[in-house]
Amino acid sequence: MDQVPEDWQTGLVIVAHPGDIEYEASAAVHRWTMQGKRIRYVLASRGEAGIAGLPPGQTGPLREREQIAAAKAVGVQDVEFLSYPDGRIEDGLALRRDLARAIRRHRPEMVVLFNFHDTWAPGRANSADHRAVGRAALDAIADAANEWIFPELSGLPIWTARWAAVTGSVVTHAVDVTDSIKAATESILAHGRYLAALGRVSVPEQARAIIEEATAPIDGFPAERAVGFELFYGRG
């Protein structure tokens, strides 16, 4: 099991909803911000359809605040919401263009994405939003490096990311997050209202279980706690 490359300074995390990052990658993000790397978040939606019984007009601002607090817990200050409709995000040219614009503006060397495959595991279907945003983002990485696909973005210089790392997916590479468990737990706890609405067990119990699953030891990787990624290589 190889180490995720870390000879970079700028990263961009692209996901569909508030909380997606914290369910899988916040410990890795904390490791990287502690190394002095600059990480930014771009979320396609505000998660407004995510809390049963609470209208979207109230849920969206609540989950936006929770995501901003969660980002700060792992050292991320810049969080951007594209305001696509939660639960109805479509993988198409509009989303690809908006994500390519974000990539050109933020100029990341590393782009971190969420599992966009059809399933999480056998018998566990992935959500439509996760599939749409992840696939569009992977395409947008190439779009951002091509001057002709979206000529309306000509005011922003083309940009070629060096890698894309997909979390919650097939594991080809990993990072040691043993020293980032506390920060990652604080990050998921920031989504307290959302977790409480799930109504399974207490919020602290949910947070503990989420972090334990996300940072479980990985066979072949010498770390007590680790986060795994499927790594895609770019150019540069």
TrEMBL record:
Pfam families: PIG-L. It comes from the Bacteria. It is an enzyme of class 3 (hydrolase). Its EC number is 3.5.1.-. One of its GO terms (molecular function) is hydrolase activity. Keywords: Hydrolase, Zinc. This is PIG-L deacetylase family protein. It comes from Nocardia jiangxiensis.
